[in-house]
Specification:
200 residues, alpha/beta, Leucine Aminopeptidase, subunit E, domain 1, 8-stranded mixed beta sheet, 38% helix, binds adenosine-5'-diphosphate
Length: 200
Amino acid sequence: MDEFKARIILPNSRTVEFRGPADITEQQTDAIVNAANSYLIGGGGVDGAIHRAGGPSILDECRQFVAQHGQLPAGRAMLTSGGRLAARYVIHTVGPIYSGGESKESELLASCYRECIRLAEQHRMESISFPSISTGAYGYPVHQAAIIAVGSAVGELNTASSLKYVRFVLFDIATRNAYVSAAEKLVQTKNKYRLEEASS
Ligand code: ADP
């Protein structure tokens, strides 16, 4: 199944692509991003799927990190190896828990995407896959989250050096459609970007 739906092409030829329905654990980008919790102990949703597919070495590295540095606050990111995954690295980030929108949720969510992309750059990666951070158990309304996610990823990629390609891997059709419409909106308001969409 070709789950490609759309891509934004930046003036520097970097691309942000939208796929779905798709499973992030199967992606072959240099890194995949995990929507983790602050304890980095695994959990449900995408977090559980990544640990199941990647094997126990990822959890060992997460435990070591927490023992050394303490919990990972919302908006921050850290890196482990990819274990048995096709991706070489997993970048774990903690999204904000949505509680009405007045608790800096949008800043924290933008910070997740920014920090992950900066870590990818520090490790000279060329490609990274993101899930829809915070829109599952953490309750962030998906249309609002999509606008923040797409805006931050495109913003960071504008000035990236090694990173050439960002992929959003969206688990269900509703989430995928929210991200594609956020991409359409961004391209309409900023005419330096170009949008390509799948025909069907
Ligand atoms: P959060 O706690 O940050 O809200 P969740 O894992 O509950 O994280 O949900 C985030 C998003 O990840 C949701 O859209 C959910 O459907 C999606 N998701 C769950 N499993 C996967 C997977 N294997 N690949 C990609 N996305 C996934």
